[in-house]
Specification:
Elements: E1 3-6, E2 9-12, E3 19-23, H1 28-39, E4 43-48, E5 67-70, H2 76-86, E6 90-93, H3 100-105, H4 107-128, E7 133-139, H5 162-181, E8 184-190, E9 193-194, H6 203-215, E10 222-224, E11 230-231, E12 234-235, H7 236-246, E13 255-257, E14 263-264, H8 265-274, E15 284-286, H9 304-310, H10 318-333, H11 345-348
Parallel strand pairs: 3-4, 3-6, 4-5, 6-7, 7-8, 8-13, 9-12, 10-15
Antiparallel strand pairs: 1-2, 11-14
Length: 351
């Protein structure tokens, strides 16, 4: 550390602690990002919506280390007040209505959060803290009906759900504010990333939790939709490091983040059931009611730019991740000690 000399003798220059604001801190990515930033020495401020239900289980082990503030992507004034009060150096916008099937049931609300919510937050940054670095959580669902394989930063978007359409808006409004106002605003086009903290409504966790229930005699079957859908699935803690790396660059830019490997839902089932010594075909039931109105068949990342510019690479394989998730769900259902950020509301709801 640099030593400065003044009239009163040598003085150790203090490095300013960075402040990071995370919207969506109670979600999977928000919880892992908060852990990572704390390890880097940040002051972490998490924005959460007022709710009558308990939503803090993923960050329960961090509550004495972070600061929570109430705010809402639907409320412009709350965003301005938060940015004004905390003066964040970095802002990570992870909040969204992020469950694709729900976006067909609530398309307008999805647009309000996932599209216009980005604009409201960018406006708060522009008006109050234009020197803050801003990260927007874009999504591989923007590629939708893909026009090329694999997909990179130059691949055209063809979204196939209200969620994907909303994410395209959020992506382009981030670019627009960067180019129009000179903000350090970037988008991470992240492909699917999972963990034991993933919600039960997502197919990876639905499968690993279903496998654990069947193994323990708590269920007899697992109902799924399109088994042929393929995704580029990675491990969530790897991906939050990529978010951070994007904001450490000298110039703002957008990056695709993924493993470059795909697996089908059928392969997911085979691996997950294999972890407990069962044959998936004996338990999986294809339910036509679970098919999407317009599905996305093949998403796979070309993350060359992230590797060369950011130096980012995934560290956990798909097979390792699924084994880790199955093990965590078995421990959860048996009432044993579970990893931090994965607790018992599942058991209390009797799922």
């Amino acid at each position: 550390m640099r030593i400065e000399r003044e009239a009163g003798g040598p003085r150790r220059a203090m490095l300013k602690q960075k402040t990071a604001l995370i919207t969506g801190i109670t979600g999977q990515d928000g919880s892992y990002l908060a852990e990572f930033l704390l390890e880097q020495g940040y002051r972490v401020v998490g924005m959460q919506r007022r709710s009558s239900t308990e939503t803090l289980w993923r960050i329960a082990h961090l509550l004495d280390k972070i600061e929570l503030v109430q705010g809402d992507l639907l409320d412009q004034l709350s965003l301005i007040e938060i940015v004004q009060a905390y003066q964040p150096d970095e802002i990570y916008n992870l909040a969204a209505q992020s469950f694709v099937p729900t976006s067909w049931q609530q398309p307008v609300l999805t647009g309000e959060f996932t599209a216009l919510g980005v604009t409201r937050l960018l406006e708060a940054v522009r008006l109050v803290k234009p020197d803050a670095k801003f990260y927007q959580a874009s999504s591989s669902e923007m590629f939708g009906k893909v026009v090329e394989v694999p997909q990179n930063e130059r691949t055209p978007f063809y979204p196939r759900s209200p969620y994907g359409v909303s994410k395209v808006y959020g992506h382009y409004i981030t670019i627009n504010y960067r180019e129009s106002y000179g903000l350090f605003a970037v988008s991470g086009i992240l492909f699917n990333h999972e963990s034991p903290r993933r919600g039960l409504e997502f197919v990876t966790r639905k499968v690993t939790h279903g496998v654990a229930k069947i193994k323990l005699g708590l269920a007899r079957e697992l109902r799924l939709g399109n088994l042929d859908a393929r995704r580029d699935w990675g491990y969530a803690p790897d991906y939050v490091q990529a978010m951070w790396l994007m904001l450490q660059q000298d110039q703002p830019d957008d990056f695709v983040v993924g493993t470059g490997k795909t697996h089908s839902v059928r392969q997911l089932c085979e691996i997950a059931f294999g972890c407990v010594g069962l044959n998936w075909e004996d338990y999986v039931v294809v339910d036509p009611a679970l098919f999407r109105p317009a599905d996305v068949d093949l998403l796979v990342a070309d993350a060359t730019k992230a590797r060369t510019v950011l130096g980012w690479r995934p560290t956990v394989s798909f097979e390792e991740m699924i084994e880790l998730m199955v093990d965590a769900d078995l421990r959860l259902l048996k009432g044993e000690d579970v990893p931090p950020g994965m607790v018992a509301p599942v058991l209390r709801r009797g799922i």
